[in-house]
Amino acid sequence: MVVACEQVWREVSNYLEGDIAPELRTAIDEHSRTCPRCRAVLEGTRNVVQIYGDERMVELPLGFSHRLHRKLEENISGRRAKYWGWVIGFAAAAALILLMIQVASPPLSRQQSGLEHAQPGNHIPPELQVVVAANSKIFHVPGCKFIRDKSNLRTITAAEAIREGYVPCVRCLKKYLAAAQLGGLPGESREARSSEGDDD
Amino acid sequence: MHREMDMAAEAASLGGPAEQLEEEALIRRVCNGEHELFYELVRPYERRVYATAFAILRNEPDAEDAAQEAVLKAFKHIRQFRAEARFSTWLIQITVNEARMRRRKQHADVMEPMVDQRDDEGNYIPRDFADWREIPSEALERKEVREKLAEALASLGEKYRDVFVLRDMQHLSIEETAKALNISTASVKTRLLRARLMLRDLLAPGLGGPWSSRLSFAKGNKPW
């Protein structure tokens, strides 16, 4: 196989890469032995590849590694700070929302008072004698000064009053309702308090 | 030569199985939150990252900025790294993209040299420098030699330079180069041939030849 100079130049890269048919490679070798121009092209190109492929070709600027390392560290710590920033921000936002909910809600004492009015009177002794007025849905202890219409009173037990849908007067029956708020009847509450004191 | 080139590529990356396993373990640890280890991962390649950026941008401060940005991007996207590619190749690809993007921004209004307008398939005829004198690798110790070589490389059109940098300087395979530059392997081969021959022509007289005058000539009106 005989090759011309132009073919050698076209195949220089493939020749150097080893990406060439064995017959063509042999033909190029034979040709370049007798052709100084093609030999110079082959050797020169090989030299170019070797010299530019050398690690020493590019010199790192002084302090490059240090600056790169520092930049990475800054980035890593920045990401961490960002992460914790998000965590803290989220916690703060949650706390703020809770606070706003609390502010927007009625105060505890008012809430308790509302609950007091709605108390069905379950903690009132069932046999307690109470009075009810015909035009009211509240039952009272006899003699309560907050009875509006005292002309038409009916005396019944607390159990009967509750059964008929009456609710206790929050003034005259306050002690029972207050005891219910604390977790039991006045007597029970006292016991509970004394046992807590014993523990101390 | 092919064998020599492959060996150079091996040496340029963590080719050994032990090193590769170590590298894979490092990548896993970084992905699992040990971010401090990322520097250990890129340290063996920092020279290549910088060299790639420099070859494309031809300016030290810009190359350093691009190299730093490329490493930070690699850190940010480490979870996207797929083990079918070498980490070094992936990192070099990010660097190429970063440097080329910066080059586009810098030179958006500058026209390409005439040589870039030519058809890739057109035949290139080497200049008749039969008196080729080899440049010994020891010459690279001299700064002025490195500068002249860099100047010769810089005088190539971008598309030739990019291929040459990735294949012959960063030792990526033809396929990896094609993928990194988003061109066909046939285009890589054609451009590589031309880049090598043009550089050979520029450097043909060797160190003893009238290098400087030829290179300054090459900057404006190229001899090919």
Provide the structure class of chain A: alpha+beta
Head-to-tail CA distance between termini of chain B = 26 Å
Q: Strand order within the widest sheet of chain A?
A: 3-1-2-4
Spatial shape of chain A: rod-shaped
Q: What is the count of helical runs of chain B? A: 12
CATH fold group of the largest domain in chain B: Rna Polymerase Sigma Factor, Chain: A
In DSSP terms (H or I, runs of 4 or more residues), the helix count of chain A works out at 8
- Bin the strand percentage of chain A: 5-15%
Indicate how many domains the architecture of chain B comprises: 2
Count every beta strand of chain B, where a strand is a DSSP E run of 2 or more residues: 0
Question: Strand tally of chain A, please?
Answer: 4
Elements of chain B, N to C (H/E): HHHHHHHHHHHH
What is the CATH C-level name of the largest domain in chain B? Mainly Alpha
CATH homology group of the largest domain in chain B: RNA polymerase sigma factor, region 2, helix turn helix motif
Q: Could you name the CATH class of the largest domain in chain A?
A: Alpha Beta
* Poorly predicted runs of 5 or more residues of chain B: 6-12, 111-119, 210-224
Shape descriptor of chain B reads: elongated
| Helix coverage percent of chain A | 55-70%
The average pLDDT score of chain B comes to 78
Radius of gyration of chain B: 19 Å
